[in-house]
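We treat protein structure as text, and this decision shapes the records that our systems exchange. The remainder of this section carries one protein's record, kept here as part of the documentation:
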Amino acid sequence: MIFLYNVQLYIGEVLTLYEKELKAIHKSNRHRKRVIYDDNLVDLASNDYLGLSTNKTLFTNAYKKVLQEKYHSPKASMLVNGYSSIHKEFEEKLKQVNNFEDAVIVGNGFVANIAMIEALVRKGDTLFIDEQYHASGMLATKLLKDSQVIVFQHNDVKQLKKLMIEHKGKKSSRMIIAIEGVYSMEGDIAPFEIFEIANEFKALLLVDEAHSSGVIGDKLMGIFDYYNITPQENHVKMGTLGKAYGSFGAYILASQTTIDFLINRAKPIIYSTAPSIFDTALGLEALNYILDNTKSLKEKIQTNLTIIQEELNIEAHSLIIPINIADNKKVIQIQEELKKKGFLLGAIRQPTVNSAIIRLIAKIDVKEELLREVCKDLKEYVQ
């Protein structure tokens, strides 16, 4: 009885600790919860940039494709018996249209970042990572020694080069740079100069294209396409299916050697069940759709960016439009006011951002008149 009492007392102390933290989160207006939003709201909050999450033709085509397979689930890790012909077909298409030597699909973008950073940054290497890199990448750095990680100011080319020069003067270890193509909160694009710096210092360059693939570039393939960069052996690209592609999953593109190394060393690839066969088939359908409709999709993207410029005087280069509010309570109030008018926007607070923002995603499936209407509602908050 005494033992059970002590166990209950210990559990109570643990739960009390959680309750205290939750109270602090509530007090700072940072509390989050799962919500099923009204389908009648105009969605300007999700990362469904091209509106493909509602494309039933793509869904039906993927469904029919999976029905032709003997198995509809992956059953095991890719390295045991979970790798299917649909996985392979998608990888082949990805590397072809992105001009990379090889590809591997991964469960999701979060896992892909863990896989890349944990596996590719070896003992003695130093990682230079943008301060606004996704939380998954930042979490992955915790698996490295503190001395291996250098965080540089967001998109600050001069500081990055200075830090790398200083590092090179002290050590002869390999250098790795981690950036995003389009940053998920600011919506800005990584500068071309970082690609030049990577080449100058013979550094491995990891590029998270979660928010740029399907949105920027001549073929809408992302930042390599946007800058017309031919992938080199020191380039690694990660992309996701849960955003512009309207599905779920992720992929990594790189040289044959790098992909082979990831397959043999990246724990999230080795020890995870293979990605969903249906989601992979849906991603393949989406990729083909983007390639087949590039011109019209680009026109719609440009139309929306023009509306943002005209109505909010914001020159955007992606479909992510952040409006700084700098007040957690106010950002929630603004979100609620806009919901009453029929619009759903993101109320983004710490720790996702340093300062609270209303984030508008100018999705191309939203009618032009509705996009103009919500922009007019937002005008008073634009600083």
User: Anything to note?
Assistant: Residues 106 and 250 are 5 Å apart (CA to CA).
